[in-house]
Amino acid sequence: MKKVLLVAFVLPLIFSTDGLARADRKKEAVWRWMDSVKENAVATARDIWEYAELGELEFHSSERLARYLEENGFTIERGVADLPTAWVATFSSGEGPVLGYLAEFDALPGLSQAAATPTRSPVEEGGNGHGCGHNLLGTASAFAALGVKQAMLENNIKATVKVFGCPAEETLVGKVYMARAGVFNVVDVMLGWHPGGGNAVTFRSSLAMSSIKFHFYGRTAHGAGDPHHGRSALDAVELMNVGANYMREHVIEKARLHYVITNGGGAPNVVPDVAEVWYFVRAPKTEQQRPIFEWVKEIASGAAQMTKTRLEEELLTSCYEVMLNEPIAETLQKNLEQVGPPPFDEKDEEFARKLAESFENEPDSILLDTEIKELEIVPPDKWKWGGGSTDDGDVSWNVPYGRITTACFVKGCPGHSWQVVSCTGSSVGLKGMVTAAKVLAGAGIDLITKPKLIKAAKEDFVAKLDSKTYECGVPDSLPPPSRRK
Predict the structure, then answer these.
(1) Cβ of 439: how many Cβ atoms within 10 Å?
(2) CA separation for the pair 259, 247 (Å, rounded)
(3) % residues pLDDT > 70 (the chain)
(4) 208-320: what fold?
(5) CA–CA gap between residue 291 and residue 251 (Å, rounded)
(6) Exposed/middle/buried for 360, CB within 10 Å: 0-12, 13-18, 19+?
(7) In this model, does residue 255 exceed pLDDT 60?
(8) 140-181 pLDDT tens trace
(9) Are 354 and 121 in contact (CB under 8 A)?
(10) What is the dihedral of CA 414, 416, 419, 422, to 10 degrees?
(11) What is the pLDDT of residues 103-115, one digit of tens each?
(12) Which end of the chain is more exposed for a tag (fewer CB within 10 A), N or C?
């Protein structure tokens, strides 16, 4: 009896281990295939780097990435959610799980820089540049989808893989309006990533945020001759800012409030009849952020009443914090460890050393990170919050979502800088991009071939929602900014 029990106990372990080995061999075959065709992805990322187009204006960049997918067997639905540069790419091999990838391609203003040049060298003075690496981001997601497609064809896997071309992440517009239109709700799970200075699963959240412009309209008059006939729109802006700054004392410590006066008048001796101030209002959770945002709007209304001016609000966007998903994070971590860090060489190290000479702060001792950061899973009440915001949050409140970062920048690079632009057009950035694509492809293959993973991700998603529902912060009646007159 003991021998029978022993055999019954050992055999499942043998088959289970062999099953895991077969699954890993499938991924390894795909990773080898990706290495053999990576130059097409590299060329795509370089083209988008050269276009360097701003949010909602990424016509060449968006089309270049869509065409890369189209030429590799995906069908493209363009102009989704009333966004001219948004699209959804789809490949299906039959009924089965639906896997999604997030892609971006917008650049930043004023950061033009020659690729792989470690000293400041603009291609065009005042021009745009990929200071956040979205040329890499969108391309790696598309390349990952091609890897999953290859696995589906080689192994007769019935599934669907989609890539979502999302414009204007820097202004937090694209995914919010796409989420409002229900574009993401067709997938079972979503994967994404962002270039960075290290290699890790990004298990931290972001700040919920609203972006809004307040336009005040008064009455012009001579500043010295008859100011009593005027009604200063600039006074309204300044009073609003004073009120908002006094409000800071009475909101939670982790809330963030910042603004710029985008129109303050033309001359000191003319009472300004038009003035404008642009606000970002942030907090860790949407449930904390939205009451603060409403308070800011009340302050604006009060400033208009005090100055007898007319107020118009122009809401640009409003995004959620990122909802983290443990099963997806663990799947990504496993694949990150299997793929390993980007294969940097001595030329990359030399570039990093020279670039680090431009940093104002003392550079890190390790300039190109080849470590894999250990994943730390913590309960929601222990989540860490990044200092910024991303419209990925709205995606994560609609479908289970996970993301990674890989080393594409020299460590110590200031964010949104010409140094980052140099990295994102260099072999450093491109090697990090290929690494990210392989990790995302491997995780995608695991998800579509192991139903229990998707089930666990959905259960975690429902538990984290805790009966809350997604309510887009932008009204249905409001078109995307590029569609407004």
Answers:
(1) 28
(2) 14
(3) 96
(4) Alpha-Beta Plaits (3.30.70)
(5) 10
(6) exposed
(7) yes
(8) 999 999 999 999 999 999 999 999 999 999 999 999 999 999
(9) no
(10) 150
(11) 999 999 999 999 8
(12) C
d(CA 284, CA 287): 9
Which homologous superfamily is 2-205+325-465 in?
Zn peptidases (3.40.630.10)
Long-range contacts of 298-305 (CB under 8 A, 24+ apart): 299/240, 299/243, 299/244, 299/247, 300/214, 300/240, 302/239, 302/240, 302/243, 303/216, 303/236, 303/237, 303/239, 303/240, 303/243, 304/216, 304/236
Domain ranges across the chain: 2-205+325-465, 208-320
Write the CA distances from 415 to 280, 410, 419, integer angstroms.
18, 11, 9
Q: Which two tokens stand for residue 328?
A: 């997806």
Q: Is 57 exposed, middle or buried (0-12, 13-18, 19+ CB in 10 A)?
A: middle
How many CB atoms sit inside 10 A of residue 420's CB? 27
Helical ranges in 172-325 per DSSP H: 174-180, 233-247, 286-307
- Asked if 99 and 162 touch (Cβ cutoff 8 Å), the reply is yes
